[in-house]
Amino acid sequence: MKEIWRQIGSTASSNVGLAVLSFIIALGLWIAGHRDIERAIEVPVEFRNIPSDLMVLDNRVDYVVLRLSGPRTLVSTLDADDLKLPVDLYGSKSGSLSFPLGPSSFNIPRGVTVARITPPILHLRLDPVIKRELPVSIRLSGKPLAGYKIEETAVQPESISVRGPADEIRRMSLVETLPIDVEGSRSSIKRTVRLSTDGKPLSFMPEQVSVTITILEEDSIKDFKNVEIGARGASGDFVITPKSAQVRLFGPRRILDKLELGADQVYVDLDGLPPGEHSVHLKFDLPAEIKVAEQKPAHFKVKISKSHS
């Protein structure tokens, strides 16, 4: 073995040896480049001249798989778009159609062989197409922040033109938007959204609508029983009758849920009243958003016995 390598080295050291070695390398590269290989290519299907009143449905194939064999230099450089399969539907009628496929269906370079076509036959169905005006419904996802509610929703335009398979369109009563996420929202939302095909072969005009979702704080009513009555501005000894009240408040839930009532918030104002008996109204020290819906009793008796010197 060492003797062989010695001879190769000796040969390569001469000009003739270099020429021979270069020829051997070039020949090897040429043989490698022209060795046959196999390759699978996904070839796109292009439907042409589809009648305006029909659409392709059922078993529609967007690409076919070609298994090709031939010299590496040819097969390895093939591009799927160059082999695109055109399917001409000019003059077709509604119903089922079949298109057998063969090597002649594709623009295959000379020297390349088609070993297999999957699927070997294109099966299609052409269905009638209609247009119809349908109302738009807003699809919501999630809920607003606790204490807030969706007061109103609006969409413009309120109806759109839908184009699609006749049987499908006739079954539809509305078109929904893509889901709009309102999870945790506490302010109104206004945005442009696309319409949902729900996986069906539909087209819309227009393709988008403007949606407004009005979100407001959620109001509620809360009853407080046996609320102790306080007094402010008293200038002498006094007695309030009764000593407690029932109060119903109205306002945002987030505030009412945390609100507690007592003598500091519910009171009678005795400032400037002389000794004697008086009928007075309740006064309230409440957050600005909270309103008094009802109170019992409506009036309170206050008896002031003497003034402080």
Structure, described:
With about 300 residues, the chain is mainly β. It folds into 4 domains: about 1-30; about 40-130, RNA Polymerase Alpha Subunit, Chain A, domain 2, CATH 2.170.120.30; about 140-215, YbbR-like domain (RNA Polymerase Alpha Subunit, Chain A, domain 2, Beta Complex); about 220-305, RNA Polymerase Alpha Subunit, Chain A, domain 2 (Beta Complex), CATH 2.170.120. Helices cover about 15% and strands about 50% of the residues. It contains 5 helices and 24 strands. The strands form 7 sheets. Strands 2, 5, 7, 10, 11 and 14 form a 6-stranded mixed β-sheet that branches. The protein has a 4-stranded mixed β-sheet with strand order 4-1-3-6. About 10% of the residues are buried.
